[in-house]
């Protein structure tokens, strides 16, 4: 069978592949400590589920407006104004099937064959693949744990060319958990001002931050660039609603119109009862969010401290998310292991610990650990790792 070049050019999601390997091993009866998961291990708050049930009982099960219901888009605008200091109208909002689809539609609407998209590395696994799917060229800006996994204004300058169409920022970051301050974003914004490319700011983990870190939206830090910024967010992480599949983008109306056209020929819309539940999530769940943040904060401290106690492992303390991204290079060298792909396979098969290798994020030598799991599993996982590394 012959396939289109576009689908042959992209790779499956590394994170989903790692999770599947874990599930396959569990099918044989092995209990695996899972550090791959990219979703909160908390149930969706009851108030959200009740709102969905109420909407279902009211038969809110029919086609909805392509960009989202007026009520949900209005609620998103209110959220952006109150929490992010950003003024948008409902016509500048697109609701879609998860933030991943919002990002894909923005890229498809903007990027053509030969266009370049700047992506700080390590990166979320889907960014470069979606750019490739659109015919664009991912241009990576390398970082490491010595730079706190963040690009500087000087680093941003170098790869900009006449072909640059888009810069993708992710703060707080998946996979590293590190986040940009207002000052750091302002410095990046000054570089962007001298060019005409757009900025896509993925802020999905904005509410999952620790140690009094204050998330600032890129469009708020750089208001002069708001008309060139696509702010992306959603319900998955902050409200423990990964399976509900609601993401949204806020951008200039003319871009939202093009993304809406793409959506009209693709998924059309997400269910009305889910959109109704998301209105409740935006307005009535602050207490539930704080409970999650408190638990993730405690788990982060235990996991990061434990990893740093292992000889040859160096792990930064993340500002947010529920991921950490330790440097395993020295520890691997001592064990004669050459790649983190090999290391993660060994952990799974011998220690029954599931992680995601850094290669999938453009960062060989690192592993992504998720602490969206219980403290007992984290402590047991650390015990096994310390035993392995001695």
Structure commentary:
There is one protein chain. This protein is α/β, with parallel strands linked by helices and 390 residues long. It folds into 2 domains: 5-43 and 287-389, Alpha-Beta Complex (Aspartate Aminotransferase, domain 1), CATH 3.90.1150.10; 47-284, Aspartate Aminotransferase, domain 2, CATH 3.40.640. The chain is 43% helix and 13% strand. The protein has 15 helices and 12 strands. It has helices at residues 5-8, 14-26, 46-57, 70-84, 98-110, 126-133, 153-157, 182-193, 218-221, 253-264, 272-284, 286-308, 329-335, 340-351, 375-389, and strands at 33-34, 93-96, 116-121, 137-142, 164-170, 198-202, 229-234, 247-250, 323-324, 353-354, 356-357, 367-370. The strands form 3 sheets. A 7-stranded mixed beta sheet has the order 2-8-7-6-5-3-4, sandwiched between helices. A 3-stranded antiparallel beta sheet has the order 9-12-11. Strands 1-10 form a two-stranded parallel ribbon. Helix 8 (182-193) links the parallel strand 5 (164-170) and strand 6. Helix 5 (98-110) runs parallel beside helix 6. The chain is globular and about 60 Å long. The model has no long low-confidence stretch (mean pLDDT 96).
């Amino acid at each position: 069978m012959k396939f289109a070049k576009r689908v042959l050019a992209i790779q499956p999601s590394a994170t989903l592949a790692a999770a599947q390997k874990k599930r396959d091993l569990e099918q044989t009866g092995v209990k695996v400590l899972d550090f791959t998961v990219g979703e909160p291990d908390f149930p969706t708050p009851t108030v959200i589920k009740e709102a969905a049930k109420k909407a279902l009982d009211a038969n809110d099960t029919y086609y909805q407006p392509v960009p989202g219901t007026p009520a949900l888009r209005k609620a998103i605008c209110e959220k952006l104004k109150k929490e992010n200091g950003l003024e948008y109208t409902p016509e500048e909002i697109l609701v879609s099937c998860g933030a991943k689809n919002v990002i894909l539609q923005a890229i498809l609407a903007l990027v053509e064959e030969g266009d370049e998209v700047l992506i700080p590395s390590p990166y979320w696994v889907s960014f470069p693949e979606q750019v490739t799917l659109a015919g664009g060229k991912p241009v990576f800006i390398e970082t490491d744990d010595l730079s706190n996994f963040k690009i500087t204004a000087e680093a941003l300058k170098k790869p900009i060319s006449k072909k640059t169409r888009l810069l993708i920022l992710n703060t707080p970051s998946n996979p590293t958990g590190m986040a940009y301050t207002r000052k750091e974003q302002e410095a990046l914004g000054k570089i962007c001002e001298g060019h005409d490319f757009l900025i896509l700011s993925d802020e999905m983990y904005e509410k999952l931050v620790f140690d009094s870190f204050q998330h600032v939206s890129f469009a708020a830090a750089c208001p002069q660039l708001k008309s060139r910024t696509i702010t992306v967010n959603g319900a998955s992480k902050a409200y423990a609603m990964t399976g509900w599949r609601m993401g949204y983008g806020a951008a200039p109306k003319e871009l939202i119109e093009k993304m809406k056209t793409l959506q009209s020929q693709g998924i059309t819309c997400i269910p009305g009862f889910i959109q109704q539940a998301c209105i409740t999530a935006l307005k009535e769940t602050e207490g539930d969010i704080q409970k999650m943040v408190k638990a993730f904060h405690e788990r982060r401290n235990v996991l990061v401290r434990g990893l740093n106690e292992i000889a040859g492992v160096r792990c930064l303390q993340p500002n947010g998310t529920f991921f950490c991204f330790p440097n395993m290079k020295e520890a691997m060298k001592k064990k004669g292991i050459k790649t983190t792909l090999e290391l993660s396979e060994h952990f799974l098969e011998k220690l029954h610990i599931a992680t995601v290798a850094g290669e999938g994020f453009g960062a060989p030598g690192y592993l992504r650990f998720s602490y969206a799991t219980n403290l007992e599993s984290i402590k047991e996982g650390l015990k096994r790792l310390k035993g392995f590394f001695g």
